[in-house]
Write a sequence for this structure.
């Protein structure tokens, strides 16, 4: 018998942008499905009408798109399936797994106050649980599930292991509010069932919910999905990741200029491991990712590790693909688009720009010599390195550059010979030369810049600076 096709889902609430923890949850679901030829579905849990906005939904879609997490089919709306959720609650009423509760808020509050006074459980025990329909008043009611009152329930979780919950800790949770609208806890289960979800991979803050949602699966006789509750992400101080730790949203990391491939690699490794592997490709991640590799302890977000991984990904990226992502970064952050000349120049310079760049702002900073135009403005340190002595030496270089073969070896050779003739070292001459070519004291290798700029532009920049 063939194994059922894997179906995972990511189900964010559009009450804010895509949090980095949500991004990792989506990534784990995506990797698990894609690595097994399965489906990765997207459901927008928009039942909180007051806080759900179209702008937040779009921000979530944009964040997933930036991360390269493609989903199958169109995103579905939880709110749009309300009629189906109500239908299931009514079916549970009909089969005796749910009941109508006519208790008022005042009565429930009084029950809880008495429980606190008597130091007993504050879980509400409705007196309407076993009242026959014939004895129901003509008053507003909620629909509650009938939770077992004794014994225990054990759920097997792929990350947490076997987790047991005493049934006396389960309340008869509400399924339909007094206005007839379904609650989130019911909607999640119905949606997962109807969408054919086989694996629910989500944060371990939902573990308690799993026991309550399990009541609905049992009441309806539905197959239960495999559960995997993953630990939360902590900041460096060991507390839940929040704004006080810096950026927390996927869009913020895009705006900071981290490459998507590096972000995927880092988030995959955050709480999951494959031996000692730290740096890996998307193909390796899809092949290796499994639920058994997820740790039980919260993972700590480390910006230095993120930067290190991103730097490695920039270094191995194809130049054209990297330039395409760089242009997307400029667009996303509202910066000027590259001119065709700048585009070609950066592409030509990309091998030297990639070296030791961890983010796109760093790469753009290195590309200053391509992006700027004559006459160059020099920063203070660059201007200081270009004294009259070095201006004189560089003036001698100009005629030699007119005829030299334009290759790294030849260029390096004539500059080294010139330095020797003036009883100095090549490194001492590189600073002033860097200043006239880039206008900065820090840049790629002077010979890399000369090769990118070409003969005419190199000579013109030297002449501008030396008079």
């Amino acid at each position: 018998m063939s194994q059922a096709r894997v179906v995972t889902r990511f189900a964010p609430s559009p009450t804010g942008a895509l949090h980095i923890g949500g991004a990792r949850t989506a990534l784990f679901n995506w990797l698990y499905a894609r690595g097994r030829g399965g489906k990765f579905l997207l459901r927008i849990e928009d039942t909180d009408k007051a806080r759900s906005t179209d702008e937040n939904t779009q921000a979530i879609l944009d964040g997933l798109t930036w991360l390269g997490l493609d989903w199958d089919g169109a995103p579905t709306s939880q709110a749009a399936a309300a009629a189906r959720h109500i239908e299931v609650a009514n079916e549970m009423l009909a089969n005796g797994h749910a009941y109508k509760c006519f208790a008022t808020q005042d009565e429930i509050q009084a029950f809880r106050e008495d429980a606190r006074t008597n130091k007993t459980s504050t879980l509400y025990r409705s007196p309407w649980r076993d009242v026959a329909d014939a004895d129901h008043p003509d008053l507003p009611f909620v629909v509650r599930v009938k939770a077992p009152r004794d014994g225990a329930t054990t759920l097997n979780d792929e990350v947490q292991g076997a987790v047991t919950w005493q049934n006396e800790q389960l309340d008869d949770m509400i399924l339909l509010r007094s206005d007839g609208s379904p609650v989130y806890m019911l909607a999640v289960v119905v949606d997962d069932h109807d969408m054919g979800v086989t694996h629910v991979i989500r944060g371990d803050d939902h573990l308690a919910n799993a026991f309550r949602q399990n009541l609905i699966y049992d009441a309806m006789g539905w197959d239960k999905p495999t559960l995997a509750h993953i630990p939360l992400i902590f900041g460096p101080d060991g507390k839940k990741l929040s704004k006080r730790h810096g950026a927390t949203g996927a869009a913020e990391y895009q705006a900071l200029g981290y490459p998507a491939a590096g972000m995927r690699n880092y988030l995959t490794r955050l709480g999951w491991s494959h031996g000692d592997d730290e740096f890996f490709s998307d193909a390796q991640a899809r092949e290796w990712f499994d639920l058994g590799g997820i740790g039980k302890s919260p993972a700590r977000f480390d910006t230095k590790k993120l930067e290190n991984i991103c730097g490695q990904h920039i270094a191995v990226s194809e130049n054209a693909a990297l330039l395409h992502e760089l242009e997307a970064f400029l667009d996303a952050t509202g910066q000027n688009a590259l001119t065709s000349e700048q585009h070609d120049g950066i592409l030509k310079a990309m091998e030297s720009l990639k070296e030791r760049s961890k983010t796109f702002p760093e790469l753009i900073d290195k590309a200053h010599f391509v992006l700027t135009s004559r006459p160059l403005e020099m920063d203070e340190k660059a201007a200081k390195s270009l004294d009259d002595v070095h201006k004189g030496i560089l003036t001698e270089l100009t005629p030699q550059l007119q005829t030299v073969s334009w290759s790294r070896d030849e260029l390096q050779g004539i500059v080294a010979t010139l330095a020797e003739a003036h009883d100095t070292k090549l490194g001492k001459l590189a600073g002033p030369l860097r200043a006239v070519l880039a206008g900065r004291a820090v840049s790629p290798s002077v010979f890399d810049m000369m090769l990118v700029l070409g003969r005419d532009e190199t000579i013109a920049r030297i002449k501008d600076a030396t008079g």
Notes: The mean pLDDT is 95. The radius of gyration is 31 Å. The longest helix spans residues 446-466.
